[in-house]
Amino acid sequence: MKFRILLAAALIAMVVPAKAERIKDIAAVQGVRSNQLIGYGLVVGLPGTGEKANYTEQTFTTMLKNFGINLPANVKPKIKNVAVVAVHADMPAFIKPGQTLDVTVSSIGEAKSLRGGTLLQTFMKGVDGNIYAIAQGSLVVSGFSAEGLDGSKVIQNTPTVGRIPNGALVERAVPSAFASGDFLTFNLHRADFSTAKRMADAINDLLGPEMARALDAASVQVYAPRDASQRVSFLATLENLEVEPADESAKIIVNSRTGTIVVGQNVKLLPAAVTHGGLTVTIAENQQVSQPNALAGGNTVVTDQSTIDAAQANNRMFMFNPGTSLDELVRAVNLVGAAPSDVLAILEALKMAGALHGELIVI
């Protein structure tokens, strides 16, 4: 059933014309990006669901030393209510000191649950090693776990991961090159030479000739004002400009684990015959001429008519003529209830024989 639904979606995509999209939907401004932050800290206040690992004791002892409390060397703290955690967050572009971030807190060790815990002050660093935010607060944990004396256990969702909304306070802004230089560069989410050229042409039609140029299949460079406020208005205008993306290259995506097969709209077949399993499918492509009456004033029109016949017999043969699209073959195989694995075997054989015009991608 899943295969048939996906096939229907692929067929609908073939008849729906491409729609123009805004530049902000198909590209991003180079240098305008988020940054990943990570920290190492302690969650306290757990109801006996913490851990007793050596690194937990070391971390807890180090925290006490920072507050001027030194434990004797032969004393080990009992810390069933403490867990060592990793704290991470994404720092959006242009965020300023004093603003807040949502953080995710994950147990590192053998803690059974973080429910009810509180994260102590944790420094969050960037890839350069500098501290950009400080996280602290009570965790929101959606999962829970329960364990009986006989070892039976019930776990729902993930009790060892929680979040703290607005749990990190930004202390340092990330330097941005947005307002420097004479250019802005748009990077396409999907590299394509045709789409890059169309984007450059659309910008030039709006701003004037040679204001934009495609650097490669993924980047379009545009002259921009140096003043920061003018650059913001300039970019606000450009990012809402509509561009019609180019058609994707002919591809067939096959998920071998789930049996999902998605056929691209530009996939075509060359003349070939395939024998497979318990199926016989014949596909013929015929042309018909529609001739108007002598006084009708119309034009002679040539139309294509596909004839598909599917049956199960002892001799299993797939036959199709030039110009047949792959969706017609897949539809015919689907009529007799073939499994996606059968279709995959046929596609691989056609590709090896050179009769399949399109990239076959198995994931």
UniProtKB/TrEMBL annotation:
<protein>
    <recommendedName>
        <fullName>Flagellar P-ring protein</fullName>
    </recommendedName>
</protein>
<keyword id="KW-0732">Signal</keyword>
<comment type="subunit">
    <text>The basal body constitutes a major portion of the flagellar organelle and consists of four rings (L,P,S, and M) mounted on a central rod.</text>
</comment>
<dbReference type="InterPro" id="IPR001782">
    <property type="entry name" value="Flag_FlgI"/>
</dbReference>
<keyword id="KW-0966">Cell projection</keyword>
<dbReference type="Pfam" id="PF02119">
    <property type="entry name" value="FlgI"/>
</dbReference>
<keyword id="KW-0282">Flagellum</keyword>
<feature type="signal peptide">
    <location>
        <begin position="1"/>
        <end position="20"/>
    </location>
</feature>
<keyword id="KW-0969">Cilium</keyword>
<comment type="similarity">
    <text>Belongs to the FlgI family.</text>
</comment>
<keyword id="KW-0975">Bacterial flagellum</keyword>
<comment type="function">
    <text>Assembles around the rod to form the L-ring and probably protects the motor/basal body from shearing forces during rotation.</text>
</comment>
